[in-house]
Amino acid sequence: MARLKTICWIDDACRIVDQTLLPVELKYEDITSAEQMWDAIKILKVRGAPAIGIAAAFGLYLGIRGFVGTSVEEFMRYLDERAAYLASARPTAVNLFWALERVKRVAKSRSAGADVSSIKKIIFDEAILILEEDDRSCRAIGEFGFEELKNTKTLLTHCNAGGLATASYGTALAPVYVGQERGHIFNVYSDETRPLLQGSRITAFELKEAGIPVTTICDNMAAVLMAKGRIDAVIVGADRIAANGDAANKIGTYTVAVLAKHHGIPFYVAAPFSTFDLTLADGSGIPIEERDGREITHGFGRQTGCDGIGVFNPAFDVTPHELITGIITERGIARKPLTENISKLKLITH
Ligand code: MRU
Question: What is the distance of C-alpha 189 from the center of its chain?
């Protein structure tokens, strides 16, 4: 089945699905400057850790392609400056920084003897490579994940870690799509995911489009379903995973993990290796984005909170590694003890 392309390069522009309009409108937008890309990342037109990384790489190319001049040294300074600007869009998903660093590293390592226009081309090619690799990684996550989950039927997911958050298959939803290709149809419960409703607006939208049975629940309903024995496994994505397996993901993920533990339900995180931040020993160092409180009090055009009150709006939380059954990556599944098994996967190269 042809999947929605949330991000691609077409006709000299980076084309994205504007995810703020889903599920009412499926609208594509052509991004032609680094400023537009910064904005698109900031306001979640393009969102989900792997898609943010791809967007950042294209954003960097868009940022430097208009550079006028022949000095490679000046160009490199400009590249650093544009990358720092894009890096300020959102703090939690490490894929953003990973992609910018990777593009800069490749440009620098191949700059000796090259002129400015050929370095620009190297940067563009690297952005395309990041997109293509993400596609392959998500497919591999789907294969490993399906193998793990093929004896289950009903999954719960939180936020959107599907095709719309990556180049195509998604991470948490990749096993569902691989299952569909093999004739195993999962039922998916999708947490609504307050306050920006990525679960009901985006996950439910893409699963419905793909013909997968999906049921949306409010975030506070998961415990009831688990208690009734209606959830076989939980699978979510991640924005940054520390060396010990502590995993940052959309706010509310930690709550679901605690519930899963209480009910004896396996809890999986699915993410490509680009989402690991092995410079962090544990999750306490993961920067957590705090967003405008109006997303809670004035979400989607209607005031639902009082004026003049305090509002706490962290966009992510960190699920402690003890609550995670396994981390499904493109290199295989890291199981407990996570620290040890993550380091083993790190050594695997493709
Ligand atoms: O704020 P968002 O919508 O970018 O948050 C997205 C998530 O938390 C996803 O679960 C995560 O990025 C993994 S996407 C494969």
Answer: 19
Pocket test for ligand 1, best of 17, 193, 250 (most atoms within 8 A of CB): 250
Contact assessment for residue 160 and residue 48, using Cβ atoms and an 8 Å cutoff: yes
Does ligand 1 lie within 6 Å of residue 237's CB atom? yes
**What is d(CA 342, CA 165) in angstroms, rounded to the nearest whole number?**
23
Q: Which domains does the chain have, with CATH numbers?
A: 7-135 (1.20.120.420), 140-346 (3.40.50.10470)
* Cβ–ligand 1 contact at 47 (below 6 Å): yes
Calculate ∠ Cα 265-268-273, nearest 5°: 170
pLDDT per residue, tens digit, the chain (350 aa), is 567 889 999 999 999 999 999 999 999 999 999 999 999 999 999 999 999 999 999 999 999 999 999 999 999 999 999 999 999 999 999 999 999 999 999 999 999 999 999 999 999 999 999 999 999 999 999 999 999 999 999 999 999 999 999 999 999 999 999 999 999 999 999 999 999 999 999 999 999 999 999 999 999 999 999 999 999 999 999 999 999 999 999 999 999 999 999 999 999 999 999 999 999 999 999 999 999 999 999 999 899 999 999 999 999 999 999 999 999 999 999 999 999 999 999 888 75
pTM: 0.97
Q: What is the spatial distance between Cα 218 and Cα 251, in angstroms, rounded to a whole number? A: 14
